[in-house]
Specification:
Chain lengths: 681, 667
C-alpha cells in the first residue's frame, strides 16, 4: 500500500515560516481549570441503562487551536466499579521525527498535565506527582514516546479529571480527528477547532486552501460553523467549527460483528487542496495510478519475460494462467520476511521477477506488468481488507485501502485476480477482498469499482470418514478432509508461514478438536498443498473409541466431526448485523462398518432445515445390517444478516446444532469366543 | 503483576516477543551500506558440523561466550558473543539480537553480523539498531527497562545471526545468573568470571549438578557447558514453565569495599534486601491511624490481620512505577498510602507497615509466579513477585488459618498475597502453592516451601432441578457455587463487566453444554465477599436437549460442567503441572416426561489414582433421573511417570460426561 495522502500540512514557504506562537503564560489556579462537581455527579453510583458500566465520561473537551499549534484536552470520568479504576492510568503517545526536509521533521510534545481526584464526599486530592516520559521506540531519525501518569487515591465513586496539551511543531498544522464514540458512555462532550488563516502547502507542494470533513454523528447533532472578524495580530481564520454531543452510548461490541471501526461516531477533518470529494479521489487516484504504473514499468520491459512465460499459449486465458502460475510460484514475503535494501533491490516489477519474491503489492504489480507485456489490458485496484474495515468514499483518505488486486480483460471481459494472496486460485479473490468497493485504474484514469464475489460452492469443506468398528466398539480407519476456496487458502497460508512439520501438526490439531478426545489422529498424506487450482486434500488415520458404552448398547454421535461443536449464537438479543466472512458449504459423510456382534437399534430421523433462501441444513442416516452411513450438508450463502433477522438466524442454528447432537444407538451382543482351541494345520 | 526481578531473563522468548511486536508495529530502520567484516569467531562457529537434533528444533545457539568482569570497586561488565543458526521458518524470531538495559545499566557496545543461507555476509551499522521501551500493561505504568534490538539481514532458515555486546551491569547487585539452557539447544557455551585481587566467589546451581570452574589463573574462572538440549514445551499440555526447568548457575562475589555481599546464601539475599527495604516499611501516623481504624474493636489476631490485609488488597490500586533499583526496592509505605497505589512489593511493604502499627509482624516474601523457578538449593535474587508472610502469635490457633508455613526458626507465618485481588484472605493462589519463596527476615532470612491447600478450599458445586418434556426440551433452575481460585474468573466477570457482558458470558457458558440454551433470571451473590461462596442462580431452558432416536429418548444426565484435562496421546517426558487442587461436585435431578421409563442408565464410575479421584452415578428415583459426581484433585504437580494414569482418568471422565440415559415409552 502506497501512502499518498498526508493530512499534516506545512505553512507555505512562499509566505515564510510562521512566527512562533506562544501559549498563554498566565498561571491559573486549579479551581479555574476544573469544573465543580455537582451533587448528582458525586452521588452517582451507576449508569441507568448500562448496569455494571465501569465508568462514565461526565465531560470531555478537545480544543484545537491552530494559531497556537496546540490541542488541549480535558476529561472528567466518574469511576463506577473496580474495573473503572484503570482509567486513572493515563498514557499519552506522541511521535517526533527528524528528517532531511521540513515536512519530515515533527516535534510533537505532550505537556501542561494537571489533574485531580474527587472523592464521593467532595474531598479533592490534587495530582502532585510528575508524569513519566518513556521512549517506546528510538531510531536514527524518529522517536516514539509516551507520557504517563496516574491519578492519586482513586476509589470507586471518585471523579477523576485531567487536562493536557499536545503541541506541534510550528511548521505544521494538523486538522483534528474527533473520535466521539469510544468504550465509555459519554454524558457530554464538546469539540472545537479554530483553523488557521495561514496559506499552506502539502508535502507535494500543492497549495492547501480548503477544509473537508467526514462526519458520522448521532441523530440531531451537526457541525456548527461560526465566523467572527479576524484580528490582525492573530493567525486564526476567525472560523470556529464545533460539535457538542450528549449521551453518546459506548461503541457496540458483539461476536460476529462486521468491521465497524470506521463507523463509530466521529468527525474527521482534512486540510485539503481539493474542493470536492470527486476532485480528491480523481487526483489522489491519478497519483497512485502513476506511482503504480511507474513501479510496474513499461510493457516493453515486461514483454520479454511475458513472451517466455506464455510461450505456447494460444488464448488470452491460457497466457494469463501461465503468468499467474509464475507469480504464484514466487515467494510472498507476507508469509516469510521482507528483505532490506542491503539484501536486494526492488525498484520495479522487473526486480520482483529477478528476485523471485515480493510483497503482496509488488507481486500484484508484477502480475499486471506481465499481463500487459503479454498484450492484455491489466489494471490495479486498491481495496480494503474487509476483515478490518470497509471503504468510506466520503472520508477523503486513501490510506483506507489496505491491499491491491488486479483486473485483467480476458476475452473482452474484466476479471479479478489476487496474485498478492499466494495460492489464491486463478480468477478468484481472497475473501477479504471480495464484495468491496475500491479504487481501480481505468483507461482514462481511475474510478470506483466493486470487487467480485463468490457463492457457497466456491468455499467448500468436505469431511469423509470410513471407519470399521471392532467387537469392543473401538474404531479404526481413514478420514479425508478436503478444502476448497477460502478454507483451503487459510491452510495454504498457514503452511507458508511454517513448514511440513508444523502444517502436519496444525492439521492434526484441527481434526483432534472436532472428534472425541479419546481418538488418536495421524496425518498420513497431504495433497495439493502447492496446487492452488485443486482442493487441498488431507488424509488421516484414526483409531479409538467414538462411542459411550452402556450395559447393552453403544451410543455414537451422529456426526463424528461435530463432537466438539458448541452453540454458535447463544445470546437472545442482537444490536449489530451478524457478519460471516464468506459464504460456505460443509459436507460430511461418515460410514461405520459394524462387527457381527453389533446391530443398529435406532438412528435419527432425516432432517432438512432451511434458512430463508440463503441457508440449508440436511442430515440423513442410512443403515444396513453391516454398516451405517451418515450424510450431513450445511450451506450458507449470506455474508451479512441484519439484526432484525437475527432471531431467524439463531433459530436456524439452534435447530441444526441440536440435531447435530443426536445419537445413533447400537445394540451389542456378547462376543462369541471359541470353546476349543483351533485345530491348526 | 510481575514487577520484581525484571533483570532476570530466563525466558528470553517471552520478553523478545514483546520487542518483536513493537518492531512489527513501527518497523526498524532500513539496512543500508554493506560490509563483509564478519569476525572469524562467527565464521568458525557457523562452519561447525551440526549434530542431529529433533525435527521440531527451530533454531540453535552455535556459540555463546559470556565474560563477566568485576573491577576493584565491584562494578561489573558483561561481555557476550552469541551465534545463532536459524533452522526453520518459525526460528526467525531467534534471529533478533536483543540486549536489555536501564537507568543503572549501560550498553557500552553492540555489534551485529549475519550470514544468509547463500553465504552472503552482512555487518550492521549502529544507526541500524533501535532502542525499544518494554511495553507495560496490567497496571505497569512505568519502568525504565529498554531493549536494544536489531533486525539483521539473512534472518531466514539456514541463516546465521551473530552479535557481540558489552554492558555495564547494575551497581547494586553482587550476583549474576548464567542461564545456560533455553527453548532452543546450545551447542557451545562458556561463562568466564574475572575478579579483582582479593575478591572471592561462590556458585549455586539450579536444575543442573554443580560443576567446578577451570582456574585460568589471575582470578579468571571458566565454566563450559556444551550440547545443552532445548526446552521445547510448545506442544506439551499441562507443562511446567520453561524457566522452572532451565538450568542456570548463579555467581555471588564479594570483596573488600563491596558494600552488599550476598554470600550465596538465602540469609545473604535477605540481608541485602533488608538494606533496601527496611526504612520503607516505617508506619507514619496516618498509616497507624488507618490501621487502628480498621482494627477498632477487634481483639483476635486473625480478624485484625484480615481487616488490614483486605484493605491493602482492595483499596491499594496495583500500579507499578519502577526506575533503576526500583525494580527491587519498594516505595516508602508513606508514599504508597498517600497515593493509594503501588506494585506488589509496595503493597506488601504497606501491609507490613500497617500490621506493625497494631503489633503484628509481617515480613516480605519473594516468590515467582511460575512454580519451580525458585530453587531451594540455588540462592539468588531470581523471582518476579512479592507477597507477605504474617507471623502468627505463639499458641494462636484458629480454623481460619489455612495458608500456614513453619519456618526453621519455629515461627509460624500466614502467607497472603495482597496483590492477588480475588484470593480470599488466609488462602494462597494456586500458582504459588508448592513453590518456594524467600522469607526476607534479615538475618533470619530463609527459603520456605509454600503450602498446598486442600481441595475443599477450591471448589465448584453445581446443583440443578430440571423437567424434561417428551419433545426433548429441558427447563429448570441452576445454582452454581464457587470458592477459592475457581471463583476468580467469574468474580472478575461479575465485578468488572457490564450487565450485558455478564449475561453474554453466562450464555456462552450454557452454550458449551447445550445446543440451544436460554438463560434467564441471572442472579449473583457474594461477588465481593471472597471468603463466601460466589453463588450464581439462573433459570435454564433448552429445546431438543434430549434427542429422539427411533422409539428411544436419549438424555445426557450430566447437563452442565466439563472437567478439563487436556491430555494428549504422546509419551510424556516432563513433569505435569495440574495447576491447582480442587473439588468439583455436581448434583442434577431431571424429572422425566410422563409416559417414559428408563430402559438403561450409564454405569456408575468410581476411580481413585491417589492424586485425583472421580466418582459418578446416575440413578432413578421415581420418575426422576438423579446424577451425582465428585471430582477431586489433590496435587498440583505430578511426575511424568504418572501420565498414563492421568490419561486414563481423562478417558473415564470424558466417557462419563457423554454418557446417556436411554428412555423408552412405557407402553
Amino acid at each position: 500500500m502506497h501512502a499518498l495522502f498526508i493530512r499534516r500540512v506545512l505553512p507555505s514557504l512562499h509566505f515564510g515560516l510562521l512566527v512562533l506562537a506562544l501559549s498563554s503564560t498566565t498561571k491559573l489556579h486549579a479551581s479555574d481549570l476544573f469544573m465543580k462537581p455537582t451533587q448528582e455527579e458525586l452521588a452517582m453510583t451507576s449508569l441507568p441503562g448500562y448496569p455494571g458500566a465501569a465508568a462514565v465520561v461526565l465531560y470531555k473537551e478537545e480544543q484545537t487551536k491552530d494559531d497556537l499549534h496546540v490541542v488541549q484536552h480535558y476529561e472528567r470520568i466518574k469511576i463506577l466499579t473496580e474495573e473503572g479504576k484503570k482509567y486513572a492510568n493515563v498514557e499519552l503517545r506522541f511521535f517526533t521525527a527528524h528528517g532531511g526536509f521540513d515536512y519530515q521533521s515533527d516535534e510533537t510534545m505532550v505537556g501542561d498535565i494537571v489533574g485531580r481526584t474527587i472523592h464521593p464526599d467532595g474531598s479533592i486530592i490534587p495530582f502532585t506527582g510528575k508524569p513519566y516520559l518513556k521512549v517506546i521506540e528510538k531510531g536514527s531519525d524518529a522517536k516514539f514516546q509516551q507520557k504517563m501518569f496516574t491519578l492519586p487515591d482513586v476509589t470507586v465513586g471518585s471523579i477523576i479529571e485531567y487536562r493536557y496539551a499536545k503541541r506541534f511543531s510550528d511548521r505544521f498544522y494538523e486538522a483534528p480527528s474527533w473520535f466521539i464514540q469510544n468504550d465509555l458512555f459519554v454524558k457530554s462532550a464538546r469539540y472545537t477547532w479554530y483553523p488557521t488563516a495561514q496559506v499552506m502547502q502539502d508535502a507535494q507542494g500543492r497549495p492547501v486552501n480548503s477544509i473537508s470533513w467526514f462526519p458520522l454523528l448521532p441523530a440531531g447533532v451537526t457541525i456548527k460553523r461560526t465566523e467572527s472578524p479576524r484580528t490582525s495580530s492573530s493567525d486564526s481564520s476567525g472560523v470556529l467549527y464545533e460539535v457538542s454531543v450528549k449521551d453518546v452510548p459506548p461503541e457496540p461490541k458483539e461476536e460476529h460483528m462486521p468491521p465497524l471501526e470506521n463507523f463509530t461516531y466521529r468527525v474527521l477533518f482534512n486540510y485539503t487542496s481539493y474542493r470536492t470529494a470527486d476532485e480528491y479521489w480523481k487526483s489522489e487516484g491519478k497519483q497512485w495510478s502513476k506511482h503504480t504504473d511507474s513501479f510496474i514499468g513499461s510493457s516493453s520491459n515486461m514483454k520479454k519475460a511475458a513472451d517466455e512465460i506464455t510461450a505456447g499459449a494460444t488464448t488470452e486465458d491460457d497466457k494469463l494462467k501461465k503468468i499467474y502460475a509464475v507469480v504464484m510460484s514466487m515467494e510472498n514475503t507476507e508469509f516469510t520476511r521482507q528483505r532490506g535494501k542491503k539484501e536486494e533491490k526492488v525498484n520495479n516489477a522487473s526486480d520482483v521477477l529477478a528476485n523471485k519474491r515480493g510483497t503482496p503489492t509488488q507481486l500484484t504489480d508484477a502480475f499486471i506488468g506481465l499481463a500487459r507485456g503479454a498484450g492484455l489490458k491489466a489494471y490495479a485496484m486498491l481495496v480494503p481488507d474487509r476483515s478490518r474495515n470497509i471503504f468510506v468514499p466520503m472520508w477523503l483518505n486513501i490510506d483506507q485501502f489496505d491491499d491491491e488486486i488486479a483486473i485483467v480483460t480476458v476475452d473482452g471481459k474484466d476479471r479479478f485476480f489476487d496474485p498478492g494472496d499466494r495460492y489464491c486460485p486463478y480468477g478468484q479473490l481472497a475473501w477479504q477482498h471480495t464484495i468491496v468497493k475500491g479504487l481501480r485504474q481505468t483507461d482514462s484514469g481511475t474510478d470506483f469499482a466493486q470487487s467480485g464475489s463468490a457463492n457457497y460452492a466456491a468455499n467448500k469443506t468436505a469431511r469423509v470418514a470410513n471407519l470399521t468398528m471392532d467387537e469392543h466398539g473401538e474404531v479404526t480407519g481413514k478420514i479425508d478432509l478436503s478444502f476448497l476456496g477460502a478454507p483451503a487458502l487459510r491452510w495454504r497460508h498457514a503452511a507458508l508461514e511454517g513448514d511440513t512439520e508444523s502444517i502436519h501438526h496444525s492439521l492434526e490439531k484441527e481434526l483432534e478438536e472436532m472428534i472425541p478426545g479419546s481418538m488418536e489422529v495421524k496425518v498420513t498424506n497431504i495433497q495439493n498443498l502447492d496446487d492452488y487450482e485443486k482442493p487441498l486434500a488431507v488424509t488421516y488415520s484414526v483409531k479409538g473409541s467414538m462411542s459411550t458404552v452402556t450395559g447393552k448398547r453403544l451410543v455414537l454421535p451422529v456426526d463424528l466431526f461435530l463432537t466438539g461443536e458448541t452453540a454458535t449464537f447463544t445470546h437472545e438479543k442482537r444490536e449489530t448485523p451478524v457478519y460471516f466472512h464468506y459464504p460456505e458449504s460443509v459436507v460430511d459423510a461418515l460410514r461405520i462398518n459394524l462387527p457381527k456382534n453389533v446391530s443398529i437399534e435406532a438412528i435419527p430421523d432425516a432432517s432438512k432445515i432451511p434458512f430463508n433462501q440463503e441457508g440449508l441444513y440436511a442430515l440423513t442416516v442410512e443403515s444396513t445390517p453391516t454398516n451405517v452411513t451418515v450424510r450431513r450438508t450445511f450451506l450458507l450463502n449470506d455474508v451479512v444478516v441484519l439484526a432484525k433477522d437475527y432471531g431467524d438466524l439463531r433459530s436456524f442454528y439452534s435447530k441444526f446444532e441440536a440435531k447435530d447432537k443426536d445419537s445413533m444407538v447400537l445394540k451389542t451382543a456378547p462376543v462369541q469366543t471359541s470353546m476349543t482351541a483351533p485345530a491348526g494345520n | 503483576m510481575m514487577s520484581w526481578a525484571r533483570q532476570v531473563c530466563a525466558n528470553v522468548g517471552r520478553v523478545l516477543n514483546s520487542c518483536v511486536t513493537v518492531m512489527m508495529l513501527f518497523g526498524l530502520p532500513v539496512v543500508a551500506g554493506a560490509s563483509n567484516s564478519v569476525p572469524d569467531w562467527v565464521r568458525t562457529a557457523a562452519q561447525q558440523t551440526m549434530p542431529e537434533m529433533p525435527v521440531s528444533t527451530k533454531a540453535v545457539v552455535l556459540l555463546e561466550e559470556t565474560t563477566y568482569t568485576v573491577d576493584s570497586k565491584g562494578q561489573a561488565v558483561e561481555h557476550v558473543r552469541k551465534v545463532v543458526k536459524i533452522l526453520r521458518p518459525q526460528g526467525r524470531n531467534y534471529g533478533y539480537p536483543v540486549v536489555y538495559f536501564d537507568k543503572d545499566s549501560k550498553i557500552l557496545s553492540m555489534h551485529v553480523w549475519s550470514i544468509d543461507a547463500t553465504g552472503h555476509e552482512y555487518a550492521m551499522k549502529d544507526s541500524e539498531i533501535s532502542d525499544f521501551g518494554i511495553p507495560g500493561g496490567s497496571g505497569e505504568l512505568y519502568n525504565d527497562e529498554r531493549a536494544r534490538v536489531a533486525d539483521p539481514p539473512g534472518r531466514d532458515p539456514g541463516g546465521i545471526v551473530a552479535y557481540e555486546y558489552e554492558r555495564r551491569e547494575r551497581p547494586y547487585l553482587a550476583e549474576t545468573n548464567w542461564v545456560f539452557q533455553e527453548e532452543i539447544p546450545h551447542l557451545t557455551q562458556s561463562f568466564t568470571l574475572v575478579l579483582p585481587q582479593g575478591f572471592t566467589y561462590n556458585t549455586t546451581w539450579a536444575h543442573h549438578p554443580k560443576l567446578e570452574a577451570a582456574d585460568l589463573e589471575n582470578h579468571h574462572y571458566r565454566w563450559d557447558m556444551n550440547n545443552q538440549p532445548g526446552i521445547d514445551l510448545d506442544r506439551v499440555p499441562m507443562s511446567p514453565s520453561p524457566s522452572s526447568l532451565a538450568a542456570r548457575m548463579t555467581v555471588h562475589y564479594s570483596g573488600p569495599g563491596l558494600a552488599v555481599p550476598q554470600e550465596g546464601t538465602w540469609k545473604g539475599i535477605g540481608e541485602w534486601y533488608d538494606g533496601l527495604s527496611h526504612d520503607r516499611t516505617v508506619a507514619t501516623p496516618e498509616i497507624a491511624a488507618k490501621a487502628a481504624e480498621l482494627t477498632s474493636g477487634k481483639k483476635d489476631f486473625y480478624d485484625k490481620a484480615e481487616a488490614i490485609g483486605e484493605f491493602v488488597q482492595h483499596d491499594i490500586r496495583y500500579v507499578a512505577v519502577e526506575i533503576g533499583v526500583g525494580g527491587f526496592q519498594p516505595h516508602s509505605a508513606a508514599d504508597i498510602y498517600k497515593g493509594r497505589y503501588g506494585d506488589c512489593k509496595d503493597k506488601a511493604t504497606l501491609l507490613s507497615a500497617m500490621l506493625s502499627s497494631v503489633g503484628i509482624h509481617g515480613a516480605l516474601l519473594m516468590v515467582d509466579t511460575q512454580r519451580g523457578v525458585i530453587d531451594p538449593d540455588a540462592p539468588s535474587v531470581i523471582g518476579n513477585h512479592m507477597i507477605e508472610a504474617i507471623e502468627i502469635p505463639q499458641a494462636y490457633e484458629s480454623p481460619k488459618l489455612r495458608s500456614v508455613v513453619i519456618a526453621k526458626t519455629g515461627k509460624r507465618y500466614l502467607i497472603f498475597d495482597p496483590t492477588w485481588e480475588l484470593t480470599p484472605f488466609g488462602q494462597l493462589e494456586s500458582n504459588l502453592q508448592a513453590s518456594y519463596g524467600v522469607l526476607l527476615e534479615n538475618q533470619e532470612s530463609q527459603v520456605i516451601q509454600l503450602p498446598v491447600l486442600g481441595p475443599e478450599l477450591n471448589t465448584v458445586t453445581r446443583s440443578a432441578r430440571f423437567q424434561l418434556s417428551a419433545d426433548g426440551g429441558l427447563k429448570g433452575s441452576v445454582t452454581d457455587k464457587r470458592f477459592g481460585d475457581l471463583a476468580e474468573d467469574r468474580r472478575k466477570i461479575f465485578q468488572r463487566n457490564t450487565g450485558k457482558q455478564q449475561q453474554e458470558f453466562m450464555d456462552r457458558v450454557a452454550g458449551q453444554d447445550l445446543a440451544a440454551p436460554s438463560l434467564t433470571d441471572l442472579k449473583v451473590e457474594n461477588v465481593q465477599s471472597l471468603n463466601k461462596d460466589l453463588t450464581t442462580t439462573y433459570l435454564l431452558s433448552a429445546d431438543h436437549y434430549a434427542s429422539t432416536t427411533g422409539p428411544l429418548l436419549m438424555v445426557r444426565p450430566r447437563v452442565l460442567g466439563t472437567v478439563w484435562l487436556p491430555v494428549d496421546h504422546k509419551p510424556r517426558k516432563v513433569d505435569i503441572d495440574l495447576e491447582q487442587t480442587m473439588q468439583d461436585t455436581d448434583d442434577f435431578e431431571i424429572q422425566l416426561p410422563t409416559g417414559y421409563i428408563v430402559d438403561e442408565l450409564p454405569d456408575p464410575v468410581k476411580v481413585d489414582y491417589g492424586f485425583a479421584s472421580y466418582e459418578s452415578s446416575t440413578e432413578v428415583h421415581g420418575q426422576s433421573l438423579h446424577y451425582k459426581r465428585v471430582y477431586t484433585l489433590r496435587q498440583v504437580t505430578l511426575p511424568a511417570a504418572k501420565y498414563p494414569d492421568l490419561q486414563r482418568l481423562a478417558g473415564v471422565i470424558g466417557a462419563d460426561e457423554e454418557g446417556r440415559a436411554i428412555l423408552k415409552r412405557a407402553n
